[in-house]
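## tool: complex_structure
## caller: assistant
## args:
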Amino acid sequence: MFDIQDHRFGKTWLKALSAPLPETLASPSETARFELGAYFGPSETPSVQVIPEMGDSYRIERKDGLLCVSGGETGVLYGAYALLFASAAGSKLPEQTQTPYYPLRVLSCWDNMDGSVERGYSGRSIWFEGGHLCYEPGRICQLGRMLASAGINVLCLNNVNVHYPAQELMLGMLPELAAFAGLLRPFGVRLMLSADFSMPLRYGLDTADTLDEGVQRWWRDRAESVWKAIPDFAGFMVKADSEHRPGPNAYGRTHAEGANMLARAIAPFGGTLIWRAFVYDCMQDWRDTKTDRAKAAYELYKPLDGCFDENVVLQVKHGPFDFQVREPVSPLLLSMPGTRLALEVQLAQEYTGQQTDIYAMPPMWREVFDTVGKDRVKAFTAVSNLGRDANWTGHPFAALNLFAFGRFAWDPDTDPEQVTRLWARLTYSLETAQEDTLVKWLMRSRRIYEKYTSNLGLGWMVTPNSHYGPNPWGYEFQAWGTYNRADREKVGIDRTFSGTDYVGQYPEKMKNEYADLETCPDDLLLFFHRLGYGYGMRDGRSLIQRIYDDHFDGYREAEEMAEELLTLPLPPEDMAEVRDRMLRQLANAREWRDVTNTFFRRLSGAEDAQGRKIFA
Amino acid sequence: MFDIQDHRFGKTWLKALSAPLPETLASPSETARFELGAYFGPSETPSVQVIPEMGDSYRIERKDGLLCVSGGETGVLYGAYALLFASAAGSKLPEQTQTPYYPLRVLSCWDNMDGSVERGYSGRSIWFEGGHLCYEPGRICQLGRMLASAGINVLCLNNVNVHYPAQELMLGMLPELAAFAGLLRPFGVRLMLSADFSMPLRYGLDTADTLDEGVQRWWRDRAESVWKAIPDFAGFMVKADSEHRPGPNAYGRTHAEGANMLARAIAPFGGTLIWRAFVYDCMQDWRDTKTDRAKAAYELYKPLDGCFDENVVLQVKHGPFDFQVREPVSPLLLSMPGTRLALEVQLAQEYTGQQTDIYAMPPMWREVFDTVGKDRVKAFTAVSNLGRDANWTGHPFAALNLFAFGRFAWDPDTDPEQVTRLWARLTYSLETAQEDTLVKWLMRSRRIYEKYTSNLGLGWMVTPNSHYGPNPWGYEFQAWGTYNRADREKVGIDRTFSGTDYVGQYPEKMKNEYADLETCPDDLLLFFHRLGYGYGMRDGRSLIQRIYDDHFDGYREAEEMAEELLTLPLPPEDMAEVRDRMLRQLANAREWRDVTNTFFRRLSGAEDAQGRKIFA
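## result:
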C-alpha cells in the first residue's frame, strides 16, 4: 500500500483521493473499482462494468437504485472519478454517455536526465536523476492517479530539447522505461518520448537525412524495440530545426518529409508523431524591422498543409510567439484544415509568474478555444508544471492549472469559473463565501498579473534567460525577434498591412478586426499597432496613462488579493507556501510596476494624471 | 629539463626566455645563473654575485670587461632578467643600483578549486581542478619564470570569494601547498592565500568574532601551521563584508578590528594581511537617488585611517566602482596617510574586452599613478589574467598587461609606450615599422574600446553577469548601485555638491576640477554631472553628438586597427588567435556602436549631424 501520507509520495492532490493506493492495481478498471470502494465504502460502492469497445467513454446510471459506471477499460476509470467528484462536490451526476472531445490529452515534461527541469518551478524531476530513471514507485502511482483523475492520458517523459543521455531511453534503458510504464498503466496513462532528430548520427550512421534508407531503417528498428518493450507506447514528440535543435532542413528536406519519415516508422505500432511547429529564426538582427518572428510558423507550415501523414500531429503553441501573458491566437491554428493539429499551452509558468505569482489559466484557454474553434484542433497538449516538491506544483494553487488542463482536454467547452470552483471545492472544501473569495481571485489573477507586468499585448519585457522580473529592454537588442521598439514618441510594432503584415495571416474577419484601431482589442493593441503615447484609447484615456494606470491598478489589486486570500482557512502547509509566495509576488509586482512605469516615463516624459509616484 | 616546446607547459612567454628550464633549480640565484648562461652562452656568461642584504635590489656592472650582476638572492634574478632583456631589446644597461619601488608586487588569482576561474578569459585554472591542487610541474616553473621576469613576487593562489574546499588549503592540504610553493621558490615568488573570514565557524567554533579569544587562537594556530609548512609564505588576502562575503560587521566590529586580528595572528611570521576595501551596499534600491555607491569605501574606511596594524595593507581598487573602462581615481587612495595602501588593478579584462577586445592597460596606469602619486600607496596588486590556455592569456597581446604590471610595480614611473615597446620587442622582434604599428595600436586600444562601448565616464552599460556586450540599461534597475539614469532630456549622475556630493571626498583641487563643468575632463563628464543632450561641449559639439561621434569613431578605428594589425608577421599560432579575436571584436564593436547609439537616439530623438545610419 502506498501511503498517501508518506511525504515521499507527495502531498494529496484532491481531498477525495486521499486513500492509500494499493501496489497491486493491474488495470484501469481495477483502479476504478478500488477508488470507488475507498470513497463510497463497501456497502455503497457503485458497480463497474467494462464494455471494451467504449474506450475512454463512460456512462453513469442508476440501476435498481445502485449506481453503475460502465465504459471502456479506461472509460470506467474516468467515470469513477467523475462520479466521485460529483459526489464530493455535491454536483449533479453527468447524464448520457461522456466521451472525451480530444483522444490525445498529453502532458509534456521538460525533464532532463540530470534531474533538472527546463522551466521547472516546483523542484527537480520526479523520475530522472544522475542520468537515470530514478524514482519512488509510490510517487509515480500517485502521479498516475492525478493524471487520470484530471483526464490526461499521455505523459511525454523527457525534455523536447533532448540532452544526452535521454537518447538512451529508447535504446539501452528500455527495460527500465518499461517498468516505469507499468506503474502508470493502471491509470490509463501511456508514455511518450521526445526524440532527437539527429539520433542516427550519434549511433553510427553518417547521416540523419529523412530520405536515406539506412536512417529510415534505423528508426523502424527503434520503433520495433520500443513497442516490443512497451506495447501501449504512445509515440514520439520532436522539436526540430528550432532554437539550434537539429532537423530535416539540414538535409534540404521539408518538415513534412521529416515528420512523415518518423511517423511511418511508428505507424505499424499505432504510434503518434507529435511534431512541434515552434520554428523561427532565433538569430534575427534587431536592426531588421522587416522580419517578424510572429510570421515564421505560418510561413513555414501553411504550404505543407495536407502533406503530413495521418499519424502526425502538428503541435502549435496557442500564440505566434511563446506563451506570453497575452498573445493573439496563432494564425496557424486557423489555417491547416488538412493537418491534424494539437493546441499546446504551458502550465509551467515560464512567463506567467513562475509559480510564485498566482496565474490561473482557464480564462485564457476559454478565449483561445472560443477564438480558434475546438474542432480546428485534434489534440490538447500542455507543458507540465510538475516537480519533486511535496505539493507537486510549487504554488499550491498552480495545481488548478493541471486539473483544468485535463478538463479542457476532455471538454473544450469547459466553463473556466466552473472548473476553478470544482478544483477549489475538491481541494479545500471551504465554506461558500470563502470558496467564492478563492474562485474570484483565481479568476482575476491572470488579468492582475498582466496589468503589473506587461499590458496591451506588449510582452517580452522580462529578464533574459530567467524570464522573470521586469526588464523592459531585456530582449530589445537581442537575436530572438522580440522587440517593443519603444522610443520617446511611440511604442509597439505595426503588424498591419502598413507594417510587417502579420495580420495578413488571419482569416478576413479577424484580419480586419486586428488591423482596425476601432476594433482591435485593447489587450492586443500594441501587439498589432505602433502608437504614440498620446494616442486616445476608446475609454478616453491616453495610451501612456493606460500603461501607468494598469501598472498601478495591477499592484493594488495584487495587494487586495493577498489580503483576502491570506484570511482563508487553508491547511497550514498550503497556507505557509501561499503566504511565502504571495509576499514575493507583492515585492515583485511592486518592482514590475515601478520599473515599467519609470521606463515609459523616461521615454515619454509624461506625468501621471493622478499624480502618483513614478520614480525618476 | 622542462622543454619549453612542450605544449603542456604553455607557450613561450618572451623570446629571450625560450631555453628549456632544468627541474633542479634550487634558488633564485641559481636560476639567475642558469638564465644568463642559457642566453649568453658559456663563454659570455656574466657573473653573478649574491649580496644577501641587497634583497630584491641589483646592480649591473662591467668589471674587467666582464658583465657582473650583483644583488640579493632575488635581486640577482631580477638583475639577470634586466640584463638579458636589455641585451635582447638592444637597449642601454641600467646604471646604478636598481631597487623595486614597491616591495609587494602581488598577482591575485580568482581561481576556484573546481578548476573554474572567476572572470577568467584564458581557460581554466592552471593549478586547481576537481577540488585539488592539480598541475603540470613544468608549467608551474614556466609560470615562475614569467612572474619573476616581469618582477612579480607574490602569487595569491585562490579566489578572494573563497568557495569550499579552498579553506582546506591552509589545513589538510598544506603538504600539497608546500610542494607547490617549492616550485615557485627558485623564482622568488612567494605564495599568498585568500582567507575566508568565517572559517572558524566551519571548523567547529561557534563564532568568528574578532574579539573572541578562541577565534584569535584558532587563527594563530592556522598561521603557525602554514608558516611551518611554508616558511616564506607571504600572507593572507581577505574580502570581507563585501558582496555577501562574511566579515567583522556581523559581530559589530570594525574592519580595522577584523583586519588587525588576522594581522596579529600572522605578524610573528612576517606575514602581510591584505584587506580589500571593495565594500558597498550591493542591495541598493534603484529608486534611491541619494545613496551613491561610489562614496561607500571612503565613508567606511576614512574614519579608520591610522587604526590598522603595521602589517595590514588595505587594498583599494583604482576607481571608486569596479574596474570600469574609465573611472576617476578612488578618493580613498588620497585620504589614508596613516594606512599602508595597495593600489589594485584588474588584468583580467572583465569590463575591458574580456581578452577578446584589445585593451592595453599601461596608459590607464600612467594616469592613475600620476593622479594619485606613487608614494601614496605602498604596494601594487593586480587581478590575474592567466589561465590554462597554451598562450596563458587568451589574447596573445593581453600578455603585455601582465608584463607591464610587473614593470609598473617595480617602477611606477614607467613610461607606458616604452614598456609596451619593450614587451613587443621581446615577444615578436618585429622590424621597426611593424613594431611601431603594433605599439601605436596597443597604445590607442584603450581609447578605441572606450569610444565604442561607453564614453564620457558612463560605465556599466553592459550585459549583467557576463559583463560583456552592450546593454545600456542592463544594470539600470538592479540592486548594484550602478545607474546612468538616462531619460529623454538628460543623462548621467550629478555627483557634485548639488547632487550626491561624491566630489566632496576629494582634496580641494580635484574636487573643484571635477565639480566645475569648465574643468571637468570630458572623459569623466557624465560620471560627475547630469547633463542635457544639447549640452555644449568645449569642442563645440553637443553632448549627444559627442556620444554618437565616439561610437562611430571607435568602430571605425577598430576597423583600421584590425586592418593594420592583421598585416603583421606574427607567429602563425599567435596570428590565428589575433585574427579570430579581432573579428569578434569588430562584430562586437559594431553591436556596441549600434545598440548604444540607438538607445540614445530613442531617448533623445536627436539625429546624427553627419547623417550616418542610427537604427530605429
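## assistant note: The CA atoms of residues 421 and 439 of chain B lie 6 Å apart. Chain B touches chain A at residues 286-287, 289, 470-473, 477, 485-489, 591, 594-595, 598, 601-605, 615-616 (CB under 8 Å). Handing back to user.
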